[in-house]
Amino acid sequence: MINFTHEQKVAIDYPYSMVLTACPGSGKTAVIVEKIVRDLAGCKEYQGVIAISYTNKASDELKKRCLKATPNSKSSFFGTIDKFYLTEVIYQFIKQLWGGVDDLHVVKFNELNSSEQDRLSAFFNVESICEKIDEYDFKDVKELYAKGILILEFIPLLAFYILCNSLSCRRYITKKYTSIYIDEYQDAGFVQHLLFLLLFDLGIKAVAVGDVDQSIYLYAGKSSKYLTSLLDKKSGFTPFKITINHRSHSSIINYASRLLNEKSDLLITDEIRVYRKLVNGTQR
Q1: Which of 143, 141, 163, 142 is nearest to 153 (CA)?
Q2: Residue 1 lies in a domain
């Protein structure tokens, strides 16, 4: 039995859509597990939760901990966002929009020939495409699909297109899943953020978990701005924080806090385990 802190209990007990910001070592996974277990208690056998983690390893660990807490995850999905796009959206419903193909496989954009790359490069402009997703011409992507080819880099966009244009897909998702949890939301991409908001608008409880100070994938088009936008009072999401680092020594927490904010309050500590050392050198 975990002795949750007051901050953790408040976040766990809140039953609606929310955004949870959590510092390193704060026990956020334990909070997510407890919330999922409570959600599953109210699910029928054909229902479940969507639990999105950034890596397969993190997803496996989350599922393992949930199954340890409850013997039946029912019809839940545990996995990465790309796995969700493929297994729950694209593979099941693309045939309703574009017809069926016998053998479908995923290839990277750079594996296409130069002519195909030239024709398809416009699909990297995901923000402009999503603004008119209902009417955008996916002709070139559709032609490759007819040959059994899906482009890896376009999977998020294609999944969002299907969700927006397939009533059957939206009905399937909303009937099967009662809530969605996305961890590491500070590294969410544009389309992932749109999908999260779409499911929220469709009535699915939506829980985002992250830390704006831990965003490390800006080079890959990920941004903490989407997590920040959920913290806005007008977003429709109630914000919660868990701020106690249970993993690190207080002196290390103090050092990290001052790196982020030179005016940050310091914890009382009787030992210093981290030091700053400046070394002069000639290497560049």
Answers
A1: 141
A2: no
